[in-house]
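Tokens for LysR family transcriptional regulator. Go.
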Amino acid sequence: MDIEALTIFAEAAHLGSFAKVARKLNTDPSQISRTISSLETQLGVRLFQRTTRKIALTEAGKRYLDRISPVLIELQQAHDEITSMTSAPRGHLKITASVSYGQKCLLPLLSEFSETYPDITLELLLTDQNLDLVSNDIDFAIRMAPIIENDVICTKLHDTHYRVVASPTYLATADAITKPADITNHKMILFSLPDYRSEWQFKTKDGHISSVPVNGTLMISNAIAIQECVHKNMGIALLADWQVDRAIKEDQLINLFPDYRVAATTFETAAWIIYPNRNFLPNKTRVAIDFIRRRLNSLT
């Protein structure tokens, strides 16, 4: 049994393209096609239906993938367990996160991570799109959500809370803000997603919830840019604690409602680490997740 051929077959099934497998393995697409054709000849069945644009598993291909996938996982697990006993974590590690979370929370960790794990080549994809982990060959993602509903494994990294913030200079010349309803008289810098630009919710310590309509003449799709506008005294904004708590601590921004929990959609949201549904995490992925969790927890 040719383990390399089985691995290529599984990759082609997951990625849906011989060309994508070839790029991942740094080889010619024709070599991938020949490997699959040879495997089909050995089995005496067609594993893929092929067109000029895409490939799709046949019924036989689906059954074969279901049977060999656990075997390939076991083999990879055995390989990683043995190599982790004799060598430091190594390999190419691809992580994705939102632009704002990456800039605020991950970039400050990169230098220490590289020094701690010099044999890991890190690729950090910062985008506000939820990229498909399998087709983009991503090891894990960090995403903001109340809960993750998908065919993935997830673990909570930390809870996320929101602050209504403004700069001291803006507040010095603006109308006083003593209760949530007062914000309607102020300039607002709004996140451009529909759920974030209609109303904000405020919860008191005893659980009472009130909604305040919001309206602004400036809407921006990037949280980092919104914070920059707040620093430039352009109004108030709703931003995550992991983004603004340092600026609040350093008196660069003012948390307007420290006695309230504030949200645009839900009060229960978090940062999640998610990765494809696998029975075993490669050593490089495991140490990276542990490192990020440990360092972020030490900063909170």
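The two ends are 51 Å apart (CA to CA).
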